[in-house]
């Protein structure tokens, strides 16, 4: 699996392009902004985008949905609890003094345990609410894309609408920490980490 990471938008959200080496099918996780930059990376890799996957509905992770979908024709996927947020991006961004285009509605509603396949790669959906009601992580052996659920040495904020600290901690401990300690964690902001590092070092999880 080819993994490309881009930091997009004024809040520096991590957008990930995942590509199957043999088939050139790809997914884009959290196209938060800077659609032209993402599209350029896709073109250089000669990837055919099958899905645009939102780990949650906050504007800094979904702001480029509209243009990405128009250009690539890929199907847009998000958890049903966060799908209503897609039509409110302009309003939510304005609360932070920023701007964003409202997103088209989702083509696919993802629930816990669902699987997304592109090329020879399958991602398992893990519903991990707490940062938002519809927050998800995506897992394939050795790799976890955690959105704003888990960060290196930290966790997603829980003071926004739909957030809940106890729910977030419970989901991290019950669903993520049992994964193999060598699993690489690709976060929604900041650097990568591993499950083992977070078990030992994350002050929120002790």
Describe this structure in words.
Helices cover 23% and strands 30% of the residues. With 206 residues, the chain is of the alpha/beta class. The protein has one domain: Metallo-beta-lactamase, Chain A, CATH 3.60.15. The strands form three sheets. Strands 1-2-3-4-5-6 form a six-stranded mixed β-sheet, with helices on one face. The protein has a six-stranded mixed β-sheet with strand order 7-8-9-10-13-14. The longest helix has 12 residues. The N and C termini lie far apart (33 Å). The model has no long low-confidence stretch (mean pLDDT 96).
Protein traits:
Metallo-beta-lactamase, Chain A; alpha/beta; 206 residues
What is the number of helices? 6
CATH topology: Metallo-beta-lactamase, Chain A
Instruction: Tell me how many strands there are.
Output: 14
Q: Which blocks of ≥5 consecutive residues have pLDDT under 50?
A: none
- The rough form would be described as globular
CA-atom Rg in angstroms: 16 Å
What is the string of helix and strand elements?
EEEHEHHEHEEEEEEEHEEH
CATH superfamily membership = Ribonuclease Z/Hydroxyacylglutathione hydrolase-like
Helical proportion, percent range:
10-25%
CATH architecture descriptor: 4-Layer Sandwich
Strand content: 25-35%
What is the total number of structural domains? Answer: 1
Under CATH at level 1, the class stands as Alpha Beta
Mean pLDDT: 96
Distance between the termini: 33 Å
Largest sheet: 6 strands, mixed
> Which structural class fits the helix and strand makeup?
alpha/beta
């Amino acid at each position: 699996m080819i993994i490309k990471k881009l930091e997009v938008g004024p809040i520096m959200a991590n957008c990930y392009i995942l590509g199957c080496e043999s088939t050139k099918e790809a997914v884009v996780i959290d196209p938060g902004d800077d659609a032209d930059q993402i599209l350029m990376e896709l073109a250089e890799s000669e990837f055919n985008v099958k899905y645009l996957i939102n780990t949650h509905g906050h504007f800094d992770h979904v702001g480029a949905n509209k243009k990405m979908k128009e250009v690539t024709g890929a199907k847009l996927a998000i958890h049903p609890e966060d799908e209503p947020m897609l039509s409110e991006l302009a309003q939510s961004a304005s609360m932070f003094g920023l701007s964003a285009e409202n997103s088209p509605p989702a083509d696919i509603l993802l629930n816990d345990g669902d699987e997304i396949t592109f090329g020879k790669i399958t991602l398992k959906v893990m519903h991990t609410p707490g940062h938002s009601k519809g927050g998800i992580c995506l897992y394939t052996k050795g790799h976890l894309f955690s959105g704003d659920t888990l960060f290196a040495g930290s966790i997603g904020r829980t003071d926004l609408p739909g957030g809940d600290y106890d729910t977030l901690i419970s989901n991290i401990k019950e669903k993520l920490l049992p994964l193999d300690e060598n699993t690489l964690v690709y976060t929604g902001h900041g650097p990568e980490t591993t499950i083992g590092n977070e078990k030992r070092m994350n002050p929120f999880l002790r």
